[in-house]
Amino acid sequence: MWDYLIKGVRTIDPKNHIDDDWDIAIENGKVAEVAPDLSVGNARQISEFNAMIAQPGIIDSHLHLGINPYGFKMEALAGVTTSLDMAGETDFILENSRKDGSGINFAILQALLPGKNIASNDPSADEINAFIDKVLASGAYGVKILGGHFPLTPEASARVVEICNQRNVYVAWHAGTTTDGSNINGMRQAVELAADNFLHLAHINAYCRGAIKPVEEETLEAINLLKNHPNIVSESYLSARNGTKLNVDQNGIPLSGVTRNCLKRFGFSVDTKGIEEAIKQGYLSVILEENGLSTLADRKDSLELFRQSHGDVSASFDRVNPFLPRAWIASAKRDNGQFVVDAISTDGGCIPRNVILESGISLIKLRALSASEFAAKTSLIPAQMLSLANKGHLSTGADADITVYDPVTQKAVATFVGGTPVMLNGKVICKEGCVIAHPNSEAFLTQGNFAHQCVEANLSSLKQLHA
């Protein structure tokens, strides 16, 4: 007898070429059967989702759970079943998953932070190896170069990518070094420094904001760079907003390169005064934590929070990401018909821009993507990126991670993880989630009694993803 039966949905599964009014049966956390008109008499529990769409669970391949404890809940509300954090801190996220989790799966790429977890912005090979050893043994899946915010030298950035490839460790890069910023020049540099190595190049749309050349030219260059370097996997997000930190040094200069660049772009001085003016004019909002969610504070509260915290707050600039690159990058294809950019992410989580469904369905309505292509970019391909063979599809025996959404309201109505609903009609069932980590973390996670799945990235396979 099935544990759960989902009925009344249009089921979409790009791997198995399903796009029809089929039911989904779940047993022992796995997909038991997907077929039309399954008998309700064979199920212990039934959910009817009339006129809704069900697809393999959305995998958010770039988000940030380390800002505050609310990202797990916000992701479940947005229909996400599995997520890839792109910064850490690993211990903070693990602790919050236990206290404020929503039952979703999550993996963590721990960022290299000069002056914090590495000594400088030019770590040696020995320092990089020691960093990798430490984070892989304490719950991480891989590592991240956070170039846009805390850049390394070009030489050190290249060393990180090279060493991770030698060791078969998943590596991502927010493009930017001490010589080139988080823009199309930085993306070009990252691609060149990666050479023929595997690399997950983060949020491609973020390099196409018109900082160096017209938006159209930057977008076309980004697309061609990825076409010519199939060893690189990537994602992009669909929000007009970004996320950053407003910490400043003793002279009032923002520490984050992203904050500095945004202030310059909108014509504000690159200092405390410029931050305050950006807030007053509505370009910048401080992220407010209340009622178990992250929201954007209004102008008055943002200014007050910034001043009270002396800049130690997270924030978001509006109007940063133009619509053209967001839509073009999400839908562009290679000559062989594969997507240029592999996945749609949020770069959100705790940052209130979890719009994979809202904006993605708009692209479906504009016919930039089909519903099946949307499911591929938000589930099937991200599962392949993370070497999660049992996710991203609804084959018999696959993990019963399922997202059910309303194509009219463009909102998630149910989020199933391992066959269990963790969100139904806007209500999150809080529970500890499952950590997806490198095998070196097995002992640490077992000792800590964390639910976990240890997976080693298959970088040689990922370099062939676009073959």
Q: Short summary of the structure?
A:
With 467 residues, the protein is α/β, with parallel strands linked by helices.
Task: Give a verbal description of the structure.
The chain is α/β, with parallel strands linked by helices. It is 30% helix and 27% strand. The chain contains 14 helices and 24 strands. The chain has helices at 71-77, 90-100, 125-136, 154-166, 184-194, 215-227, 257-265, 272-280, 299-309, 323-331, 356-365, 371-385, 442-447, 459-462, and strands at 4-13, 18-20, 23-27, 30-35, 46-56, 58-64, 80-87, 105-112, 142-146, 170-174, 199-201, 232-237, 244-245, 284-290, 293-296, 314-317, 343-345, 348-349, 402-406, 411-417, 420-424, 427-428, 435-437, 452-454. The strands form 3 sheets. Strands 6, 7, 8, 9, 10, 11, 12, 17, 18, 23 and 24 form an 11-stranded parallel β-sheet that branches. Strands 1, 2, 3, 4, 5, 19, 20, 21 and 22 form a 9-stranded mixed β-sheet that branches. Strands 13-16-14-15 form a 4-stranded antiparallel β-sheet, sandwiched between helices. Helix 13 (442-447) links the parallel strand 23 (435-437) and strand 24. Helix 4 crosses helix 5 (184-194) and helix 6 runs parallel beside helix 10 (323-331). The protein is globular, with a radius of gyration of 21 Å. It starts with a strand and ends in a 5-residue tail after the last helix. The model has no long low-confidence stretch (mean pLDDT 96).
